[in-house]
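Lay summary

Proteins are chains of building blocks that fold into shapes. Our project writes down both the chain and a compact code for its shape. Here are two examples, one after the other.
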Amino acid sequence: MEPNVRFWITERQSFVQRFLQWMELLDPTNLVLSIEKIEKSRQLLLTNQDASRHDVEDQRIQEAWKRSLSTVHPDSSKLIPVPFRPAAFLPFTAPMVFLSLLSVKNLKSMILPQVSFYTYTTAFNIINGNASYNRQPYESILLGTGVIASSTFFGLLPRFLQLRFSLNNILTRKALPVVFLTQVSAVNVIASRSFEPSRGIEVMDKEGNVIGYSRKAGTKAVKDTATSRAVLFGTSAFIPEVFSYFFKRTQFFQQYPWSLWTLKLSCTILVMGLMVPVSFSIFPQTGQIQCSMLEKEIQSATQEPELFYNRGV
């Protein structure tokens, strides 16, 4: 069985345990691991089938799990490209979220931040989604291009409405971009991973044996991930706007107007630094689903009451 799959199935964790686990996996040092170190760690886990994450007596086992879980895709057993590993998510997206929420006087200055943000998140969703179904490279490219274009359009829509109709009300000027960012980020996950509900993803028993492909499991995996993204970007966009609103009313801001940018950027990074592991921890990495909720052909193929599937990140 793929070591990462074995880990997520056997280590049934609470939300707090998943949060602490993700804090380790999001360590930036995981971005600079050499291929040689990763391969050695994988070999150690493959030769120690009973190795547990809680085997505190062996530091090598703990380090091997950390390297494997943070760099290798559980479905394909392939290395995740460095810019799209979970540890790279915060450094790439936090500045983009900050730039996407800046007040501007013309729409052109918002195009690049929006395109950059949705290009990265779309690629991240496709690469880190469930990869157990058959797909051709050109299908992912065409799908990603369409998702990027549509997400960018809807991401720019609130700014266009503000400039076109001179919406100066504080509620619409500040709340509208946050609402759109939250909704579009969730829909971006659903659209970029739309093959999973339509083609089905692998469902396994507790031993890792593949029982079949389920569209219902694919739907649940995408829905859960989209929910976690909405929580992540909604909170990360809302809290800095609230802080900025009250900061503008202080005397310090009147003396140093430029400090607003520093505060807002710092607040965005701090909030996202907390919310990224929180959002990744809301749902288990390997989800469980009642066999009775799946397709009839899968129910007839096993006597297991529950099956497992890779939710993706």
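And here is the second example, written the same way.
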Amino acid sequence: MVARVQPDRKQLPLVLLRLLCLLPTGLPVRSVDFNRGTDNITVRQGDTAILRCVVEDKNSKVAWLNRSGIIFAGHDKWSLDPRVELEKRHSLEYSLRIQKVDVYDEGSYTCSVQTQHEPKTSQVYLIVQVPPKISNISSDVTVNEGSNVTLVCMANGRPEPVITWRHLTPTGREFEGEEEYLEILGITREQSGKYECKAANEVSSADVKQVKVTVNYPPTITESKSNEATTGRKASLKCEASAVPAPDFEWYRDDTRINSANGLEIKSTEGQSSLTVTNVTEEHYGNYTCVAANNLGMTNASLVLFKRVSPTIPHPLQGPGSVRGINGSISLAVPLWLLAASLLCLLSKC
């Protein structure tokens, strides 16, 4: 706000005399010129404002005033504000320059001119625009699935910023309405993630901040894979589950919990687990149970380790015209007449 200098009591008669000679009678002086409107000047916060005023001749007496009082009387500066100076690009100009404009500078300014004929005034209304700035936004939040969630985003600016919310997903859904509060009723696991608050006005680029919403839910088995194995070989069973917080896994054979020992190895990472048998024997074949649990619940899946049966390979001499004897020898099923004919041919040397 442009400040005003308080004159010394001893100088008060002299000050009043100068003002009476300089200004039209009475303040405010807006009523002196009924036909002249008020000009609006819009300036962004932090920029420099130039309020134009031009006199008719060099003998005119000029002053700048605002709602707080006198800023300049002639070339005498009454304001203590170092940001305020006169702008005189030529002898008849008497413009007012305000640097680093702030919101408290907004308001009406009057250039009062006392000519040889009549007093005139020129009024300017300074409008200060402020870029949008988010002043308060919800912290990251963790809730259980099915809960109601309210996110808050408040912003300052002139003109008043428009606030919009968007869920940062591949679809980038933008929520209806322009509200400081975003309410999500019965939140689901698909609605977890980051939410973006954007505050925008026409002064500058929008201010954007994000809130992360974590939705807790109990485990769900997403994949369980049985396997077949050959005796003496290595084999694995795998189990995957979705949950927040990430689930803990346990493996069971019948009702007995399995640990990593005696040729069995359990490896669990976030969301998946595997049970590996390093050397399969007959006792390893059968049913297994994978259990996934967190603080919201548990679930399980049954898996089977099958025995791999090798296919039977026929004897290379065995064909459709052969017969296997009792002792395992191969005999050819040849008709008797063909054998007799062959024997007669051999005897007669045919």
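What can we say about the second shape? Confidence is low (pLDDT under 50) at residues 1-35, 321-332.
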